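Researcher: Please translate sequence to structure tokens.
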Amino acid sequence: MIKVIFKELDDYSDLHLVAIKNSVIYLAAGYKVDSDTIRSFLNNEVFDVKYDYFFRATNDVHEIDKIKSGEFTRSFNYIDGYFENGISVSDSLAYAKIDGYKYVYRLRGHVIGYGSDGEPVLD
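Model: Translation complete:
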């Protein structure tokens, strides 16, 4: 489940994404925003990610075959101790190098949410 927190600012700024952290989406605008506007913004600007592909890093050389066969469908969130609703990915190769993964591959999918560290989760 994702929580949304909205803050009204003391300026005239448009509705914008402030951050995504620990499954909480922080939004702000310089005016009151109704729930329909927030819902539309989330659908069009947050969940409808416009990347052509994402990166998945792993130490399992067979993981891509497991995904293709349907054997692997959900990532485990080791920080919080639960399974994600899909496969966690990144829009950058940087995290693969930082965390020392052995294998990285590109994949496509629909963003259905975000992990506790803000990473996209694909269907």
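Researcher: Any highlights?
Model: The longest strand covers residues 3-8.
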